[in-house]
Design goal:
Elements lengths: L1 E4 L7 H4 L4 E4 H4 L6 H8 L5 E4 L4 H4 L7 E4 L12 H8 L2
Parallel strand pairs: 1-2, 1-3, 3-4
Amino acid sequence: MRILIDECLPRELADELVGHEVRTVQEAGWAGLSNGELLEKVSGSFEVFLTIDKRIESEQKVPGDVALITVRAHSNRIRLASAPARIASSYE
């Protein structure tokens, strides 16, 4: 699955999504774009857009070919799983 991680989430999250083609907004060269511009670019390029911006769905039109996943957290300083947890998930 092709997944794009929003710039407001830690880049290291990409390492946790084993078995998927994952890029960050920064890696795609789309840092600094408005949410609307970003969603237009995501459409046709990625299947999943992962963000922590809980307002994006109510403020923007999400393209029909993109699954929007909103991470719920107290802040964007998310602690990521340890390496053994990543290894274990790759064998499931």
